[in-house]
Amino acid sequence: MGQLGWEGRFGGLVAQLDGAFGSDGTFAHDRLRFVDFVDDVEDLLEEVARQEKGDKKAADGFEEYVLRHFAGHSG
């Protein structure tokens, strides 16, 4: 994410997300449980939504959607 140039605008977000991935870009399951990562990402997205739109509710449902998607459920 730092390579996308987001570190200036969302520095804390970039640092937290980059720490969840190995040098090859794959999720580092040995460092963090995926469900904890998704929960953290939803929290970070709520903060971004608050900063950008003034309303953190724009990110509501992210965690449920991702976990359902990766569990093979639609919806």
List keywords for this structure.
single chain, about 80 residues, mainly alpha, 3 helices, about 50% helix, flat
Strand tally is 0
Number of helices: 3
Beta-sheet strand percentage? under 5%
Helix proportion range? 40-55%
The description of the largest β-sheet is: none
In N-to-C order, the SSE pattern is: HHH
> If you compute it from the alpha carbons, what radius of gyration comes out, rounded to the nearest whole angstrom?
13 Å
Question: What distance separates the N and C termini?
Answer: 28 Å
| Uncertain stretches of 5 or more adjacent residues | none
What is the overall shape? flat
* Tally of distinct domains: 2
Class of secondary structure makeup:
mainly alpha
- Quaternary organisation of the protein chains: single chain
| Average of pLDDT | 74
Keywords: Coiled coil
Protein name: PBIP1 protein
GO cellular component, one term: membrane
Q: Your description of this structure?
A:
By secondary structure, the chain is mainly alpha-helical. The protein folds into two domains: 1-30, no CATH class; 32-74. Helices cover 49% and strands 0% of the residues. It has three helices and no strands. It has helices at residues 11-18, 34-53, 62-70. Helix 2 (34-53) runs antiparallel to helix 3. Keywords: Coiled coil. This is PBIP1 protein. One of its GO terms (cellular component) is membrane.
